[in-house]
Amino acid sequence: MSAMITLKNVSKWYGDFQVLTDCSTAVEKGEVVVVCGPSGSGKSTLIKTVNALEPFQKGEIIVDGLSVGDPKTDLPKLRARIGMVFQNFELFPHLSITDNLTIAQEKVLGRSKDEARQKGLHYLDRVGLKAHAAKFPGQLSGGQQQRVAIARALSMDPIAMLFDEPTSALDPEMVNEVLDVMVELAHEGMTMMCVTHEMGFARKVANRVIFMDKGAIVEDCAKEEFFGDIKARSERAQHFLSKILQH
């Protein structure tokens, strides 16, 4: 089975500082991979290299047969095929929810206004927010804005979704409404890479867990192994797990 996303020995520097060191992993079609680890371990940088939001200096990334680092690769087109959901929603505050959902479909995919609107509202309904189509982002709660951001990404018919700490900017009571949508997507077979601290989510839907520390992938194993046999984990992962699993 060929992987949807493959990273081979990916390294990245900011000046003299190495943020990623020889990172290799593969994500199969329909697989849900959770990337976790302490702050500053390179998690967000890693998933941003997948759709070239972060350039990398060494190694290779292949997404659905396309080389991300190849100068000939059409990056806007590639990004259109990989949904990205950020920590801070990244919605256009001056556009209505409907326009937020349709603008990229029209500009990047060349869809007609009607088709883009129909598709956008379909996904808005799916995340439970159809009644808010005419509102502006500022009129919605953080959790609702993040669900709009997910609907926007899905409107592009992505082959995979990347989530960069999608719940970390939310109030605790809003976290579950976003995770519920993500769980549903996972159950439907969406290929997903999620940077998250939500270990309950990881236990529920992840196929694999990648644990990073200091820019390197320290663990890359099935979730049953990661959470089940803690003693077999690296010292750094054990320390991380002991901190987050005692709550």
TrEMBL record:
It is a peripheral membrane protein. One of its GO terms (cellular component) is plasma membrane. One of its GO terms (molecular function) is ABC-type amino acid transporter activity. Residues 5-239 form the ABC transporter domain. Gene3D superfamilies: P-loop containing nucleotide triphosphate hydrolases (3.40.50.300). Belongs to the ABC transporter superfamily. This is ABC transporter related protein. It comes from Pseudogulbenkiania ferrooxidans 2002.
